[in-house]
């Protein structure tokens, strides 16, 4: 590593960065560099390199957003669904049992995920993802809130919106006993 850091191109680049940061004539850039140094408590060049690393990390995460979304949105819930099904098969089927609640939670999650994905693809939102840089992060947060044990978002969404909508659909559909 020292060999790379002490190589001629790296040293020349570092010298150029240091010269740029310490002999800046543009007052706006000079002021920003001084504020960055004060805020971080680091020498200007270290603060600059830290900013470059953070910016690079954000760019990489955005480019990996779809993969992160698929892992967090599909892999963990799929495994949890399989565990819930396994648990249900080992236990007696009983309304209100823990395994029944788990299966319901994950079935609701998959239904919400499928509906959301269908709307996303059919409406063209999926094609505009590049425009909205925070799209994947927002979607991951939404999906995690749906299945997170403390949040239990899928069941909350089900009780607040999906169940009432299904009840209205059931009562107004032509084959329904309650339809007039």
TrEMBL record:
GO cellular component: membrane
Residue spans crossing the bilayer: 47-62, 106-125
Location of the protein in the cell: Membrane
Keyword field: Membrane, Transmembrane, Transmembrane helix
InterPro entries: TB2_DP1_HVA22
Membrane topology field: Multi-pass membrane protein
Family classification: Belongs to the DP1 family.
Protein name per the record: Receptor expression-enhancing protein
Source species: Steinernema hermaphroditum
């Amino acid at each position: 590593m020292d060999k790379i850091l002490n190589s001629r191109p790296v040293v020349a680049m570092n010298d150029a960065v240091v010269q740029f940061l310490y002999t800046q004539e543009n007052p706006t850039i000079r002021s920003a560099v001084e504020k960055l140094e004060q805020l971080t408590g680091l020498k200007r060049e270290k603060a600059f390199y830290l900013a470059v690393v953070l910016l690079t990390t954000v760019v990489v995460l955005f480019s990996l957003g779809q993969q992160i979304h698929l892992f967090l949105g599909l892999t963990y819930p799929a495994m949890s669904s399989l565990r819930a099904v396994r648990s249900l098969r080992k236990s007696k089927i009983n309304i209100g049992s823990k395994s029944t609640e788990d299966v319901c939670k994950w079935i609701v999650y998959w239904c919400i995920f499928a509906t959301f994905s269908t709307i996303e693809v059919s409406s063209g939102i999926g094609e505009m993802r590049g425009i909205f840089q925070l799209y994947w992060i927002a979607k991951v947060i939404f999906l995690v809130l749906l299945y997170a044990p403390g949040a239990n978002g899928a069941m909350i969404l089900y009780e607040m919106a999906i169940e009432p909508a299904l009840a209205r659909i059931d009562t107004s559909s032509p084959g329904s006993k309650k339809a007039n």
